[in-house]
Amino acid sequence: MKIGVFVCHCGTNIAATVDVERVSQEAAKEPRVKFSTTYRYMCSDPGQNLIKEAVKKHHLDRIVIASCSPSLHEKTFRKCAEKAGVNPYLMEMANIREHCSWVHQDRVEATAKAIELIRLALAKVSRNKPLEYLYIPIEKKVLIIGGGIAGIQSAIDIAFANYPAVILEREPSIGGRMARFDKTFPTLDCAACILTPKMVTVSQSKHVTMHTYSEIEGVKGHVGDFTVTIRKKARSVDINKCTGCGACYNKCPVRVPSEFDMGLGKRTAIYIPFPQAVPNVPVIDRQNCLWFTKQKCGICKKICPFEAIDYDMQDEIIEEKFGAIIVASGFTQFNHAVYGEYGYGKYKDAITGLHFERMANSSGPTGGKIIRPSDGKEARDVVFIQCVGSRDEQKGLSYCSRLCCMYTAKHALLLKEHNKDAQAYVFYIDIRAAGKNYEEFVKKVQDEYGAVYLRGRVSRIFEKSGKLIVRGADTLSGAQIEIKADLVVLATGLVAQPDAPGLARMLHIPYDRNNLFTEAHPKLAPVETITSGVFLTGACQSPKDIPDTVATASAASVKALGLMVQDRLQREPLVAKVDAKTCSGCFACIQACSFTAIEEEEIEDKRLKKKRLIAKVLEGVCTGCGNCTAVCRMSAIDLEGFSNRQIMEEIEAL
Amino acid sequence: MRYAYFPGCSLHSTAKEYDLSTKAVAGTLGIELIEIPEWICCGATPAHITMHLLSLALPVKNLLLAKKMDSYEVATCCAACFNRLKVANHFMENDSVHRDKVNEIIGEQYSGEVKVRHFLDILINVFWLKNLSERIIKRLDNLKVACYYGCLLTRPGEVTQFDDVEEPHLMDDLMKILGVEPVDWPYKTECCGASFSLTKTDIVLKLSGDILQMAYDEGAQAIVVACPLCQSNLDLRQAMINKKFKKNFDMPILYFTQLVGLALGIDPLKLGLNKHIVNPLKLIKSVGVL
Amino acid sequence: MKWFISHDTLRSLFQETLEKDCGEKVSHCYQCGKCSAGCPISFQMDYLPNQIMRMVQLGMEDQVLSSRTIWLCASCLTCTVRCPREIDIAEIMDYLRRRAYKKQVIPLEETEIPLFNKIFLRNIELFGRLYEMGLIGMFNLLSGEFFKDFSCAPKMFLKRKIGIFPHRAKNIREIRDIFKRSGKLAHSKKDRLLHPKLLFLNLFRKFIGKIEKLK
After folding, report:
1. Is A587 left (phi over 0), alpha (psi -120 to 50) or beta?
2. Is C199 on the interface with B (CB under 8 A)?
3. ipTM for the whole predicted complex goes beyond 0.95
4. The domain that contains B93 carries what CATH number?
5. In terms of residue numbers, what domain contains A361?
6. Domain that residue C155 falls in
7. What CATH number does residue A475 fall under?
8. Chain segment B89-99, per-residue pLDDT in tens
9. Chain B residue nearest residue C45, CA to CA
10. Are B61 and C178 in contact (CB under 8 A)?
11. C75 and B45: CB-CB below 8 Å?
């Protein structure tokens, strides 16, 4: 066994605190070490060449690199070893930067510790076995969870590359929140005008399948081979027979508040949420349909010329395989009913931004008129309150929801456009308009549309003689303010969907204390998760406006396509292995495995001359976490690359 | 039901009718209120403004007196006393630094074991509204009142643990049981000026004037209170408010206990209804109770 | 320009001291202004509550302690229950008043409230329970408003809402001990506020004010 030790200066990162030359000399004295040297930057090209030449010259068969954390450069040095003709798994790293030079000041002690760390690595590498990469096949299909603008954009990008995409949407139509918006900031494009073409592209693409009115029930497997269980809820309308003629909902006698219109308008019991819905197939709301509640009516079934109505339709559970998953499950609005000082959500004329969007929409429930929901009169004095729920540790969220400043400015502008006599008052704490042309937009709203911006949070809203009295302050002038408002629009923050934690657990992805999904790295891997093959886009990761959502959607699609274009996936061979002879078949490991990577397997025991059950690790699924090795009472499971012998050797070298 | 009763200074002077009516109601309902012997002032606002330790030591002294009566629950009517007793208990329970200091001052050991309840809370959550409704003799129909809670009864929520901080409703619930119609008004917890009655009378006149105006606008015939400070600011100062703002409010300011007493059929004089500056008897007669 | 904030002011330990002594994180304040928006007394204040928080953050101890605002706070706790940063603003006001007492920096134009508090506590120290007649009489005498609320008196007497004689507590010794042990300030005998010079100044000021009104 001929081991080479390569000690890195990392500029002054290591060399300033650790005497690297001494470390190298000490390492050279260790048994089996045939060569030892230092270099300024071992990861650089010259550094790697130095390793390759040393391997050739001294016939080294194992390598220890004393430098930074393996999470940074393990891959680099594995490749380097491979190119030098050494099995990449006969290379070990001693972390003398993060674990030593960065956290110590005393040069003598740090040097001693660095030597110690190298001795551990030497002990381990002497027990390393050459390992070969694993290869797994890839299911060439991408699942997109959520059919809002994020999911739609991802589907378009994936379909454009001629790979199949499946959109899973829980509502009867795709479109998400954006479909409810009137205009978009800062350009004031009509939201429907820019969204519906994309929805149509999706519906016409031969590569895209849509499961609308469907929910995800379970996810099994791993990158390249996810098995997803989907519940297709009973729509009560046969999607293949329906032509979208509308005869059914035109004749339906039931009227209930429309969820799409935030309760400002009515819909029928058999309905499409909005005219441009995709697919243009109605759904029966069984809670309110007379047939389902009272076994009466049945008009829609009688009237449908295509016999598409099916009252007996049942939920359907399907299983599909995917190679990658894009999570685009979006957000929901903060519920302002927790604010007692704002009336616990009981004032009809204190609405949210999304209500305002529906009212401002000319095809919306009020035909574009900004009215008071309480009496239907046109609103003149409208108070906008920003940061409702956001930036409020006491009652809401600690974070800034990022778009409320902009959408409130847009609302103030739209108000003036819809009613020349109206006046907008905006209570804000800070204006955060850090996008392209955003600041200019806010200025325009103040200068040209006369919106009065008041710096302060509102303390109280109450009703008096049909008006909402808003008590706030303007901290810039140091004055209290009272406004008699016709309408109050609360810029409620963006929060994670209530079922986000459940979805995260299904997908094995982490989420933060606000239930927002956590990216693999906040700067360098913003659309990846730590579970390979699962990507994030849109507001399920953090509040995002439309431009940012579309950008992350395309980014996530590229990441997914990066997997799709490969013939097979290379994986690290650092997985658990079962020793069939010692495994007693207690299956404690199956309980311990959080990735369902262990199965029961029947073997022919030659010694006992009978068949028996033992554990079997699915190499493609195993992540090498080591849970199973810890619980195995027979020590029958070992983790490749971190075997019990390797670890024991390390401990003994201490 | 037995309680150590802490009336507080006001109930022995300016708010005598509160004390009378509370005792009368408790007596009728069989709630035993035994006055803490030799109780002392809770320190009110001046204490916590001036000396933090004193503002804890004075209430704790009273709680210790109650503890010696073998009574582990104190009943009080004054919202300010209630607040100070609750705050002191909160500190003695949760803050070991202050607990040690206060115990040293008092020379005894106390760690917040005596529970403090407002009489309103006792009526509603211990006696239960349902039981109360069975004892009502005269329903006070045709009376519209504004229930005014003031600041100190509910705030801060985590200390008083009494009612909703922004929209309290316990008194309203109680009124409904008596047949009284509580108006839905926004000034339930607005400040009346409280302790500034003597020092900053102008502030009190403005704030109390606003409260009277709002109650009047919302159609209330009287304001019902649970705090002697609120009562004196709204009642005693009403004439001055009328003079200063050129109004002619004639709004009786009643204690909730007085209305409960009337509904239980207690004689108005025993409830101290003759002790108000703004005479409530006219109103009470007009709704047909007398 | 109202003030100049010097480098020394910014480096003063006012905020740290306050946070340590009363346990409230003024540094959390991000100036949303909700406290000022809901404050019932702010129409009388020289600085809004949010401005006081800012001045504490910047170390402006002299300006804060000599402000009228801290004395005008009615301790109604509206700000405290609504603060999105969970700062007990009313408690900070209490702290500032206590500090102002300690440092004897009470603004001359706002002596009524500190004076009242002192007389109130002295009253309790003497009688155990509040002796209203004594309190009102003493306050009117020392604040120079001799006939304040005179019109209310007959009604109060007639309704027997106010007693002429104080309550005599049996445990008065214990009460005085509590006051004594609670600290120097609680024991109000030797208070600067009750110093003849200050009282005289106060009375004189009131007298001048009355004369000017008459003119």
Report:
1. left
2. no
3. no
4. 1.20.1050.140
5. 333-495
6. 111-214
7. 3.50.50.60
8. 999 999 999 99
9. B203
10. yes
11. yes
